[in-house]
Design brief:
Blueprint lengths: L16 H37 L3 H9 L4 H28 L6 H14 L10 H11 L4 H29 L6 H27 L2 H10 L6 H12 L5 H29 L6 H15 L10 H12 L9 H24 L3 H13 L1
Amino acid sequence: MSGSSPKNDQPPPSDSPEKLAGDSSKQTGRSKRVLLTLVKFAIPVGIIAFLVSNVDEAQWAALAEHDKNYGLLAAALLVSIGAMALSFARWCLLVRCQGIDLTMLEAQRLGAICFLLSFVSAGSVGGDLFKAIFLARRRPGKRIEAVASVLVDRGAGLYALLLLVAVALLFLKAPTDAEYMDQVKTGTAVLVGLGTVVLVILVFGGRIVDQLIRWGSTLPLVGGLVDKIGPPLRMFHHHKFAFAMSIVMSLGVQSMLVISMFFVAKGLYAEPPTLAEHFVIVPIGMLMSALPLTPAGVGVLEATIDKLYEVVPAEPTVASGTLVALVFELVKVVMGVIGTIFYWTANEEVRESLEEAEEEA
């Protein structure tokens, strides 16, 4: 009889109170996540509706008077899709530099999902956390390297934006507001200078930088952080050609986005700002929209483009920067549909990474 004591490590029956309570808790958590996702998607939609309602009636009337070139609007979408695909290829290149396996197809699939996620996070940098977590799950022990690839990918894109602005400013005719543009030139020069110095040191610094990293790893408080992030960032010292290619690809991505918005402007208005002026206007707008202020930078981009449409062109334009940027946002929404398809058809590995990213966020 002594050996007939009940075992306490058996799982509860399927209809036990403990099991039912656990199922109810999971269902409640799942419902909350769905509701939160719907709310997040509703925020950018609400911002767009607010912006549309605040467009001046005279601007709507001026837009209605012009014939629309739908061929150029379709071209804007195709160019933007090409820019998106090129940016995902750049990320794949940087990931491989960190010794993490990632196929080009996977990079395109994950990148499209991350683009979709950017619409539910503050700023236009959404999805980066998901990228890092997916790569870390793929290669345990490579979490820091995964984060490094994402950071360098983002940095390469921002650096390319600054370079485009700097080059375009050299060829820009006298703008309407010269004083404002002088401030833009000064700020751009400072940022390009700082970015160039940092990149040159990381990629070409050699033994001196390695010694600095080793010294920094011995410092109190920050030593552990320096020891972890230093080597992954220095990995590009051994992949100079790949890193240079990432910068070239970034210039291609940002140039295509400029051309896309110019096509939108030409599709809506007969005489918008010139293409050269858009190479100043659009990158600055993209930089501002990268700030973590609103989901996908919606609202920030429109306000910035509208202001720059007033001060950058040498000849005043009747084109509304707000309307052009709004249509460009709609182009991005259509691009997000591609991410939605990949999101719905994601495999278990991707779904688990998404759930983990939600929990950590």
